[in-house]
Amino acid sequence: MNAPNPAELAAHAARVNAEPGDPADHPVTAEVRELLDEVDQIRAVVGDEFDLGSVSRQAELLTRAHDALAQALEDVGRG
Predict the structure, then answer these.
(1) What sign has the CA pseudo-torsion 50, 48, 67, 74?
(2) pTM score, two decimals?
(3) Where are the alpha helices (DSSP H) in 1-79?
(4) Which of 10, 32, 40, 52 has the most Cβ atoms closer than 10 angstroms to its Cβ?
(5) Distance CA 59, CA 57 (A)
């Protein structure tokens, strides 16, 4: 097993000691915002009517938003 080199140690120390970034700057934020905007647009068009196709599309969009957020959290856990 090789010992970490100084560059690896410095990079690790920088990650550990860095200030946390602003969540609004994370790429997933824009992706999720777009998906939720599309859900809102569908809701605005359909109104109070029950439309199975619209509900299905909204569920699909919300699932995609959830998956994107879950993946981002998983990626953070790996850092």
Answers:
(1) negative
(2) 0.68
(3) 6-17, 27-46, 52-78
(4) 32
(5) 5
